[in-house]
Amino acid sequence: MSLAAATRDAVRERPFLYDALRAGVVNYTAAARTLDVDGEEEAIATALRRFAEELDDGPVHESDARVSMQSGLGRVEPPDAGTDAILAVGDATFADGAGSLTGIVASGDLSSGALAEVLGRLRATDVSVEAAGVTDDALVVVVSRRAGPDALRTVEAVVQG
């Protein structure tokens, strides 16, 4: 494997570095020191520069959605056929009237990139996410009641151009 290919693979194992390269905010030499790639530090830095030049710096996702907040969500086990689920992931189903969690629901034109950005921003603001999911026309994030307003503002900022 070439040094350039090894460097690209190492970057793809660190999404934060990939995003920083796309944004053009990387000290290439410092980043080269952190990668587990066999080669000269300056050669790895050069490979990073070249990789960054090839990356699209446009938006990660295009989304346009309406956002609402729904309180009183909880996990229902097992989900019954009459349950109006807000989100079901694996064996976890979250439904209205079953607890004290809050769901932030975005409806419209969405992408999986929108969920990735929402989760990253929520992590950066120390908002713990109980569950999340996305389809082409819906995005749902389940958080504690206290975190609801912060999560609402975050989702709105991401999906409302």
Your description of this structure?
This protein is α+β, with helices and mostly antiparallel strands and 161 residues long. The protein contains 6 helices and 6 strands. Strands 2-3-1-4-6-5 form a 6-stranded antiparallel sheet, covered by helices on one side. Helix 1 crosses helix 4 and helix 3 packs across helix 4. The longest helix is centred in the N-terminal third of the chain and has 14 residues. The model has no long low-confidence stretch (mean pLDDT 90).
Total beta-strand segments: 6
- The SSE string, one letter per element, is HHHHEEEEHEEH
Termini, distance in Å?
41 Å
- Class from secondary-structure proportions: alpha+beta
Low-confidence stretches: none
Our Rg estimate from Cα atoms comes to 20 Å
Helix percentage: 40-55%
Shape verdict = elongated
Q: Mean of residue pLDDT? A: 90
Which terms summarize this structure?
161 residues; alpha+beta; 6 helices; 6 strands
Write the layout of secondary structure elements.
Layout: H1 3-12, H2 15-23, H3 28-34, H4 41-54, E1 64-76, E2 85-89, E3 92-96, E4 101-109, H5 112-124, E5 129-134, E6 138-144, H6 148-159
Helix pairs in contact: 1-4, 3-4, 5-6
